[in-house]
Structures are given as C-alpha cells and as structure tokens.
Amino acid sequence: MAAGIQCWDASGNLVIDITGRLQRIIGSASLAGGNGSVTDARLAGGTIWFAFQPSQIWGFQNMDVSRPIFSVAGTTISWTYSGGATTQNIQIQGIMFYGIY
Question: In Å, how far from its chain's centre is CA 38?
Fold first, then answer.
C-alpha cells in the first residue's frame, strides 16, 4: 500500500505529490563542544539525513568560532570541530537531529 501526501488545486490538478520519500526523525544528540559520534542501527533502514541547530546565537570573540563538521559511515554519524585560530576559540554547541528517508 502506497503512503504519502497528495494535494490538488481547485481545478483538480495535482500540485503536491510526496509519496516516495518522507523523512522520519529517529533521534537527536547534544553537541556540547568536542568531537563525538552517535551510532543507531535504525539508520540502516533508509538514506541518512541530519540537521544541526545551534543552541544560541553566539557572541563572536575575534571572529574565532569552530563549527561541527559532520560525516556518515554506515550507521554512525560523527562530528569534529574545525580548528580555532586563537586561544579564544568558541565551539558552537547545539542539537543534531537525525533520521532516514
């Protein structure tokens, strides 16, 4: 049985057809600075996606901030932080949501 969303306009024309790949959130991980990873066997059930949401708008100290850089291998999503230019480097913290579609 097919699943998804289809919408038609007032004239009966199909304008939205999302029947093949709907995203599903599987989990989240808190990034508090420092490298890390999350492994979840449920990620094997489709194509992996992830989204990072910073926890706050950070104050720039000499414009030296490090953002997380993500990579995927199998059912593991890993992150490392880019290097800082000064001793006042700030690693951006937040939440990563992940799932499959």
Answer: 12
Question: What is the pTM assigned to this prediction?
Answer: 0.74
Q: What is the pLDDT of residues 25-77, one digit of tens each?
A: 999 999 998 999 999 999 999 999 999 999 877 666 566 788 899 999 999 99
Is residue 96 domain-resident? yes
**Host domain of residue 85:** 22-100
Phi, psi angle pair for 75, to nearest 5°: -105, 25
Is residue 17 classed as helix, strand or coil in its secondary structure?
strand
Amino acid residing at 92: I
Measured between alpha carbons, how far is 93 from 6 in angstroms, rounded to an integer? 38
Task: Please give the tally of structural domains in the chain.
Answer: 1
User: What are the C-alpha distances in Å from 41 to residues 44, 47, 48, 51?
Assistant: 6, 13, 11, 18
- Residue 23 half-sphere exposure, CB side, CA atoms within 13 Å? 9
